[in-house]
Amino acid sequence: MTAPAPASAADRTDGPDRLPPARFALGPHTWKEIAHLLLNLPVALLGFTYVFTVVLVSGVLTLTVIGLPLLAVCLLGARQLGKLERLRSRALLGVRVEEPTPLPIARGGGPMQRLWLALKDPVGWRTLLYDFIRLPWGILTFALVLASLFVLWPVLPFITRGLANVDRAMVRGLLSPSDELERRIAELESDRGIVVDTAAADLRRIERDLHDGAQARLVNLAMGLGLAKEKLREGRADEHVAAMVAEAHGEVKLALQELRDLARGIHPAVLTDRGLDAALSSVASRCTVPVKVTADLPARPAPAIEGIAYFTVSELLQNLSKHSQARSASVEVWRSDDRLLIQVRDDGRGGATLEGGSGMRGLAERLGAVDGLFVVDSPAGGPTVVTAELPWRDRKE
Predict the structure, then answer these.
(1) Long-range CB contacts (< 8 A, 24+ apart) of 51-56?
(2) DSSP track, 88-126
(3) Any bridge partners for residue 334, and if so which?
(4) Confidence label for 2 from pLDDT (cuts 50, 70 and 90)
(5) CA–CA distances in Å: residue 342 to residues 20, 39, 57, 68, 198
(6) In degrees rounded to 5, what are phi and psi of residue 373?
(7) Residues in Cβ contact with 256 at an 8 Å cutoff, skipping those fewer than 6 apart
(8) How far is CA 20 from CA 7, 158, 170, 172, 239, in A?
(9) The predicted structure's pLDDT at residue 39
(10) What confidence tens digit (pLDDT) does each residue in 329-361 have?
(11) Nearest in space to 290 (alpha carbons), one of 234, 246, 348, 329
């Protein structure tokens, strides 16, 4: 039995950079290239119309409040046109180009920041440029291929291959993903906005707690002591004055406790002095559900990472106390290579999601701002397992 002959180049599966050579006979690859080149004209007309409309309408409306938002939406639409062109090129030209990274506008930030990110999107602008220059090229390729079908049939495969290679170069040059640096800059700008918004929210919370809590108590204390002082000056040191002083003493203790709680919310002393294990054990002891804490850390991470880990667990345990109806829970913290991993489990009713409230979503945004991950696995009926991952950075002594 003779061995089968080796596959020829024409029989191999084509890839993005390797195609069978053009031959006088019209093979399947040539017919695909012909179809692509003939479709260039109608596709280019649609793309050019879109670009012309975007530039004209957005340019006119730039003087109004809707001009820039409309341009941002059009750039997002250009991304979708680029996606369709990549699909067409993949099917007919064998060009396999990676899809660009989605814009990080869904990860947080204010409306103005999301608008700015969309307006600076290099993928959208390159797609508009691609659609703008395609109209003359689409007319040329349509005319050449159509004429060659009737006049230059013998050399049609070679003409088709040359024109298709120009198309391949355009797709790779203008519709390929953004440079990694561009993508990273966009992510960092989005993360910076999240960090700024989070810091502002924390400052507002601290101000609110001081104004409504300790400050109000201290004001009442000052008024009470002032009245007691006046009565003592008048020589009326009776049981009423003693009660006022006792009440003021109680207010002092409550104000001190509120200030301690506020300081713990900013940065607990136990975390600074004794590290993450002791701090997590402390916060677990205040949880309404019994919590077992296990920490396997060979060293202490950088203070910023340590603080984020602490407040992540603290927020999760607060949510657990309020909503989970759990009977027990556990917190595990360990290091794996260059990552700090946290896992919080409970046997409650489940059903927790990132969309269920601002707390979970806020935690995901905070971790995302430092290249972390936040995953919630909480089927209805439980159990709930929340996994958080942070980059490990060594502590500088």
Answers:
(1) 51/78, 51/128, 51/131, 51/132, 54/78, 54/128
(2) HHHHHT----PPPPPPGGGG---HHHHHHHHHT-HHHHH
(3) 296, 341
(4) very low
(5) 53, 53, 51, 42, 21
(6) -130, 150
(7) none
(8) 12, 12, 20, 19, 105
(9) 92
(10) 999 999 988 899 999 999 888 888 777 665 788
(11) 329
Residues 38/142, Cβ–Cβ less than 8 Å:
yes
Task: Provide the residue type at 231 as one letter.
Answer: K
Are 33 and 161 spatial neighbours (Cβ–Cβ below 8 Å)? yes
The reported pTM is 0.44
d(CA 155, CA 118): 46
Task: Determine the length of the chain.
Answer: 397
Place of tokens 């050399």: 155
Residue 179: alpha-carbon gap to chain centroid = 18
Report, as an integer, the average pLDDT of 290-308.
87
What six digits make up the tokens of 28? Answer: 């399947």
Return the exposure string of 112-121: e unless at least 16 CB atoms fall within 10 Å of the residue's CB, then b. ebbbbbbebb
The reported pLDDT for the residue numbered 37 is 92
Alpha-carbon torsion (165, 166, 167, 173), positive or negative: positive
pLDDT, one tens digit per residue, over 35-76 is: 999 999 999 999 999 888 887 887 777 777 787 888 888 888
Residue 3: phi and psi, rounded to 5, are -75, 145
Q: Which residue type sits at 88?
A: R
Three-state DSSP state, 305: helix
What amino acid is encoded at 353 in this protein?
A: T
Please give the pLDDT value at position 147: 87
- The two structure tokens encoding residue 315: 């927020």
Contacts of residue 50, defined as CB under 8 A and 6 or more positions apart, other chains included, come to 74, 77, 78, 81, 131
Q: Give Cα 385 distance to the centre of its chain.
A: 21
Per-residue pLDDT tens over the stretch 360-380: 887 887 787 777 888 888 888
Residue with the two structure tokens 């829970």: 329
- What strands, in cross-sheet order, belong to the sheet with 291-296? 291-296, 329-336, 339-346, 384-391, 373-377
- DSSP letter at 355 equals T
Residues with Cβ < 8 Å from 284, sequence gap 6 or more?
A: 291, 292, 293, 317, 331
